[in-house]
Design goal:
The protein contains three helices and seven strands, in the order βααββββββα. The chain starts with a strand and ends in a 6-residue tail after the last helix.
Amino acid sequence: MIERLLPNCRDHVWSAWALIEKKKAWFGQGMTKMEFWPGGTEHLTHVSDMGTHTNETRYFEIKDRERIVFAYSMALNGRIHSVSLATVVFADHGGGTRLTYTEQMCVIPPSDGAEGRKHGWTALLKALEDFLATDTMARA
């Protein structure tokens, strides 16, 4: 579990997850598809010195401005190395938002495993914080 207390209102934080142009700004420009509804999918690809990384996501529950439940797989050069079920919960907190991220994962060796996911999501949530500090449109 990773928790963040953000100074932004819940609508503002939610919009950064719900709108593709905002999510690409903090999650990754390699996002080519985002269907933000139950049953919808998301696709992201980026290339590093290790090769081509692919993230495939399916949304299972979206409770407006409260909770997102999704599953995703991560692959390197076409080989899936982890599959996860994740939940993001949004709650009001002192004029801002408490964001709680939880994940259960299945590791398919070889993989960077749980430490890799924690490192990745910690970096992504820091990128979200940085984005929210400069984004002025709180629509979703």
